[in-house]
Amino acid sequence: MNLFQFCYGIIHWLVDLVNHLWYWLGDVLPGALGEFFNDVGDLAASHGNISVFAILLEVIVIVIIALINVLNFIWIDRKFMGRMFDFYGPYYVGYRIGGWLQNLADGIKLFVKEIIVPKKADKLGFLLGPIIFVGSSFLALATIPLGTRFGIETSPTDTGVPGSALIAFAFFAIAPFSILISGWSSNNKYSLIGGMRSAAQMMSYEIPLLLTVASVFLIAGSFSFTGIIDAQENIWFAIPLLLGFVVFLVCLVAEVEVQPFDLPEAEAELVEGWTVEYGGMRFGLFMMTSYLRGYIGGALATALFLGGWNGPHIIPEPIWFLIKAYIVFVIIEWARWSLPRVRVDQILNIGWKRLMPLAVVNLMIAATFKTLGWF
Amino acid sequence: MWINMGPQHPMTHGLWNLRIKVDGETIVDAEPEVGYLHRGIEKLCERRTYTQIIPITDRLCYGSSLTWSHLYCLTVEDLMNIEVPPRAEYIRVAAIEMQRIASHLMWLAAYAADLGMLVGFIYAMRDREIFIDLLQALSGSRLTYNYPRIGGVAHDAPPNFVRDSLRACDYMEGKIAEYEKLYDGSKVFMMRNEGVGVLSKEDAMNLGVTGPPLRASGVKYDLRKDQPYSIYPELDFEAVTHPDGDCYARYRVRMEEMRESCKIIRQAVQKMPQGKWRVLAPRIGPEGTGLGRVEDPRGEGMMYIVGNGTQRPYRVKIRSPIFVTVSAAKHMLLGYKVADVVAIMGGLDMCIGETDR
User: Fold this and answer.
1) What is the mean pLDDT of residues A108-127?
2) Whose CA is closest to B11, among B39, B26, B27, B32?
3) Is the peptide bond before A130 cis (omega within 30 degrees of 0)?
4) Nearest 5°: phi and psi at A174?
């Protein structure tokens, strides 16, 4: 049974429950009105209708899992930082579960704060920025399956979105536009510089990132996550493509904008960069989404290089997937708290002069392996 | 485009304003503005008796308050011609070198945080605690000590002070080696520091820069060596210099200075004689002038006091090292990127309390 069938079953049961009412109305009401209610019942019970609502339910399930993961990620981040820095991290809110509820408390605090829009800001852009940022990140999430039968599917035999990896990277790359929009529309010099830096950084790191991903596509012979992960059943791609994996991780850090590469929001020189004018829950959304992107990054690295849900069957597939994604995230956090921030010209140099040739070399390695027929 | 970095900005470490004109990300003009934290300390001093001024001079700099009260006492002793007992001199020197290490560690912490390296911030602040605790054992306070007195120090050193100081020095020397691994071993840290904010030897001397930034430009000028005060001539240490004049050189100079300070503390506590730690000073100062110059952790601190034969000084003039050093900001900043501002200005170890007085 896959996630679609599970959701289909739930929706089917709900529709049957409600259809009792429609069919009863169709029986008791006379003539054309009764016919109408019978038709409504038939329509509701049709395969197409139930499928649509089943897919909606799937989306809700995936989003809830993602949000719980985000809460976990923020908690892990704080605890891990605390352990590195000789303090405890969140402790008192949710004492029995290691301070896990601190994130919820912070979220509630952000919810009740006033949303301030600067007088000279461009109102539409100021509103659109967070919407695009959050929306595109969640869309990227929709394509990533957590197991062979645990993703967004549209039929019982479906194995995920075709070309899902391509779509995921397409959505993942929308974020710099929203950052530029929100930085520019805030009408603040710091946020403008932050937005411009973000655009430059993302553009230069997108290319080596996609080149390493192309090497994975080449070896796996598939554009969809399911195909790629199935191709890694015997050996993880991180082993033959070790170089590509390292380049991918570095680019990922730049894409999710954490510490060594968090130039757009460098708090030392640009205060908080492009988020400086956002307050209340709009800032909360930015914050949450940056961790969500951390989760997506971990999931992408897991799916493309670390064998996805492949592993001993004692542990269920989605749990395997999440464990690997968490480990990648923790590695990113480790770099985040122990490295200084690089400068804007240096980050572009690293991107174009170091990572780009390495990514091309990695692509050649992948092509060699494919030609030799090893994969 | 002119950007105001300050008065409220994470880079400033206090309350001052750096206006920079950028072309893209490159700085084409810079204009430091100080004066936001002016508290009128020099004027306040004129309305207080000689003893009452000591706590005020503590408030000059939150990073190294002991140095300033020591400087004040030194100046008044020069005015009143008081001979300080040798035990007091040794305690003072040990204390101000501890203060120097604590101040440099605070600089290191702030500098690491400026560069985005948060782990460096926490580690340096953690080790600063050791010296703050020692100073607390000595004086009873943790930030503004009010410890030196005209003609000595307020209390004798506590029991076990020698043992604890030696242990702290051993600990600190191990930690400095660890920091060097953490910072010099970090490729990104070196990228951010090498060749950034170069201040040439001539510029440094012409602009009146003193302290670690001057020594980092290759000028061997340290008041503890060149115009020794207190017991410094009896101690064996080096004035640290570095030829490069960039941010990395300033970092290296401060790290080496912490090593030298450990050496000085060790010698001072071991050579410390027994005896009186304070002589009583007259309440009324004579007519005349007193001048004191010390090597503050941030540069050369100078104080000039004019007495008019009453309980209160007629005039107290304070020369702040950072007030002069910040005028070199423009020479250091031009041509570098916006992100380098934090490295360059952070590397100067700005302390606004003493700058604006």
Assistant:
1) 86
2) B32
3) no
4) -75, -30
User: How far is Cα A263 from Cα A272, in angstroms, rounded to an integer?
Assistant: 10
- Long-range contacts: B308-314, Cβ < 8 Å, 24+? B309/B284, B309/B285, B310/B284, B310/B285, B311/B49, B311/B50, B311/B283, B311/B284, B311/B285, B312/B46, B312/B47, B312/B48, B312/B49, B312/B50, B313/B45, B313/B46, B313/B50, B313/B53, B313/B285, B314/B46
Q: Which of A83, A84, A269 to mutate to test the interface with B (most CBs of B within 10 A)?
A: A269
Q: Do B11 and A341 touch (CB under 8 A)?
A: no
Please state whether A87 falls in left (phi above 0), alpha (psi between -120 and 50) or beta: beta
B178 interaction partners in chain A (CB closer than 8 Å)? none
Q: What percent of chain B has pLDDT over 90?
A: 2
pLDDT reported for residue B343: 86
Q: What digits encode the pLDDT tens for the residues A75-90? A: 888 888 888 888 888 8
Q: Is B32 strand, coil or helix?
A: strand
Residue range A191-231, pLDDT digits in tens = 888 888 888 888 888 888 888 888 888 888 888 888 888 88
Amino acid in position A213: V
Provide the ipTM. 0.77
Considering CB atoms only, which of B1, B114, B337 is closest to A268? Answer: B114
In the DSSP assignment, the letter for residue A84 is: H
The pair of structure tokens assigned to A125 is 């852009």
Q: Hey, which residues does B254 pair with through a beta bridge?
A: none
Instruction: Return the domain boundaries, chain A.
Output: 119-372
Domains of chain B: 44-356 (1.10.645.10)
Instruction: Indicate yes or no: pTM above 0.80.
Output: yes
Interface membership of A184 toward B (CB under 8 Å): no
> Is the per-residue pLDDT at A159 higher than 80?
no
Q: Write the CB contacts of A117 (distance below 8 Å, at least 6 apart in sequence).
A: A123, A126
What's the pLDDT tens digit per position in B15-56? 888 888 888 788 888 888 888 888 888 888 888 888 888 888
> Is the Cβ pair A271, B188 closer than 8 Å?
no
Q: Tally C-beta pairs within 8 A across A and B.
A: 79
Contact B186 A337 (CB under 8 A): no
pLDDT reported for residue A348: 86
Tell me whether residue B299 is exposed, middle or buried, using C-beta atoms within 10 angstroms of its C-beta: 0 to 12, 13 to 18, 19 or more.
buried
Which residues on chain B are in Cβ contact (under 8 Å) with A268? 10-11, 113-116, 342
